[in-house]
Design goal:
By secondary structure, this protein is an alpha+beta fold. The chain is built from twelve helices and 19 strands.
């Protein structure tokens, strides 16, 4: 239990200027501010009487990096805040987009221990931490400032963590929701319909190709700045998850066969990880065009990559998750479009990929070696077989 400590007010900010300004209808002012989205956090504490405190706030903010200070605004009329002021330690729990129900439950005013049905564990100093929160910040109360009808509570940071780096919960226009950005949100399935329809018309030949090669064949297409697996045939039974629906950024080393212009090529190379050398990618692209196919060597790095791609493909992802995936992609650069001397070492391949145009839609046909590695001496035969089927697919759907 925490020792009770009456928190003294360390300062008071004058509101004389505000008092002299034109009066505003408070309800209209509040309505206007709801058009600015804010994060949703829960301030929690454990007073010495054993009855835990939980207060939902939309005003959590970073105040200072040196020293490390964070804070939030609390209504002076809040009963939860009146109890919180008697605590030495509090935590800020940043709720995830999946915790809307928790935010609503903790906003109720008719429950004394609001956390009784909320899964929690303890912070290092004993304050409640809500399970599944994006991040938490444990603080000692440093000071509070009266500003109008609210207090600014300043906390000296003691510990923090980001155990669940997913999208946060947001409050916007009186509603709870989640953050979306054009640059990384998964595109709607309707945008994929032309490509999916084109491939489905060639489904029987896709199945024949997989059967002849006795390997899984996956069809990828580009949608904006992502490459997405839209069809598969011959899925290997010894693999736990399907490749269908997998998506990743259209950036080195993936999707190079879909580049059509110098402008696209430059933009694609620019998306490579920091430190990647454009000249090396120019060399790799030259080898790819000479072969008319994309090749990738099998490596241990693909294991971590596959795990992250699976998470990335499950739903809306954060910019941080995208950056992490791009970093892993960058670590695999050397395995893609290898020189002939590297191929001749006898290492197994992860991927053999060629481009096709079906019903006016550009796609990538990929033979994967995830469950059954591709031997170097099989590559030429696999590529020629894929090309022959692509010719048949293009004739069939024309």
């Amino acid at each position: 239990m925490l020792t009770r400590k009456k928190q003294s007010r360390k300062g008071n900010i004058s509101v004389e200027l505000a008092a002299k300004s034109s009066p505003f209808d408070s309800s209209k002012l509040w309505e206007a501010t709801t058009h600015y989205p804010t994060g949703v956090a829960v301030v929690t504490a454990a007073p010495s009487n054993g009855e835990r405190v939980a207060m939902v706030v939309g005003t959590f903010t970073s105040i200072s990096l040196e020293p490390a200070l964070v804070g939030f605004f609390a209504s002076m009329e809040s009963t939860s805040y009146s109890r919180l002021r008697d605590c030495d330690v509090f935590t800020i729990n940043v709720l995830s987009h999946a915790q809307e129900d928790i935010a609503r439950a903790l906003s109720r005013k008719d429950v004394s221990d609001k956390l009784q049905d909320i899964p929690c564990h303890e912070s290092p100093l004993g304050a409640p931490l809500i399970d599944g929160a994006v991040a938490w910040f444990e603080c000692r109360i440093a000071s509070s400032f009266g500003i109008g009808d609210h207090d600014l509570v300043v906390g000296a940071l003691q510990a923090m963590d980001v155990p669940n780096p997913v999208l946060p919960l947001l409050y916007f226009q009186r509603s709870l929701g989640q953050y979306r950005s054009k640059s990384f949100v998964i595109s709607g399935e309707e945008a994929l319909l032309p490509a999916v329809s084109a491939v489905e018309r060639a489904r029987s030949l896709l199945e024949e190709l997989a059967a002849e090669l006795q390997r899984e064949v996956v069809v990828f297409t580009r949608l904006g700045e992502e490459v997405i697996a839209i069809a598969s045939a011959g899925e290997q039974p010894n693999r736990k998850t399907s490749l269908l629906g997998r998506r990743f950024p259209f950036a080195p080393p993936f999707g190079a066969l879909l580049l059509d212009s110098e402008e696209e090529t430059k933009a694609w190379i620019d998306r490579a990880r920091s430190g990647s050398e454009p000249a090396r990618w120019r060399d790799r692209l030259s080898r790819l065009r000479e072969r008319g196919a994309s090749l990738a060597m099998l490596s241990e790095g693909h294991r971590s990559f596959d795990e992250v791609v699976e998470q990335f493909s499950q739903g809306i992802h954060t910019p941080q998750q995208r950056r992490h995936l791009l970093a892993l992609m960058g670590e695999l650069e050397a395995e893609y479009e290898p020189e002939d001397t590297s191929l001749e070492t006898g290492r197994d391949l992860r991927l053999t990929q060629v481009r096709a145009r079906i019903c006016g839609v550009d796609v990538l046909l990929s033979v994967h070696g995830m469950s059954q590695p591709i031997r170097y001496d099989e590559v030429h035969s696999i590529i020629e077989t894929m090309r022959s089927y692509i010719d048949r697919m293009e004739r069939k759907v024309t």
